[in-house]
C-alpha cells in the first residue's frame, strides 16, 4: 500500500492493525490486492 501512496495511518486502519510492526508485515502485494477488493466492495455497498 505504501507503494501506492497510501499513508501508514490509513493502511493501518484499513487492515485493522494497531501496531506499525504488524502493518509492515502485511504490506505486500497479495495483501494489498485483498484489501483493495474489500474496499471496492464496501464502496459499492454504499
Mean pLDDT: 79
Determine the N-to-C terminus distance.
Answer: 23 Å
Shape estimate: globular
Biggest sheet, open or closed, and with what strands and sense?
none
- Total of DSSP H or I helical runs spanning 4+ residues: 3
What helical percentage do the residues reach?
A: 55-70%
Oligomer: single chain
The unreliable regions are: none
Helix-strand category: mainly alpha
Total domain count: 1
User: In sequence order, what are the helices and strands, one letter per element?
Assistant: HHH
DSSP E strands, number: 0
Rg, rounded, reads: 10 Å
Strand content: under 5%
TL;DR?
The chain is mainly α and 46 residues long. The protein has 3 helices and no strands. 67% of the residues lie in helices and 0% in strands.
List keywords for this structure.
single chain; 46 residues; mainly alpha
Please render the helix and strand layout as text.
Layout: H1 8-15, H2 20-26, H3 29-44
Describe the structure.
The protein is built from 3 helices and no strands. The longest helix is centred in the C-terminal third of the chain and has 16 residues, at 29-44. The mean pLDDT is 79. The chain has one domain. The chain is 67% helix and 0% strand. The termini are far apart. With 46 residues, it is mainly alpha-helical.
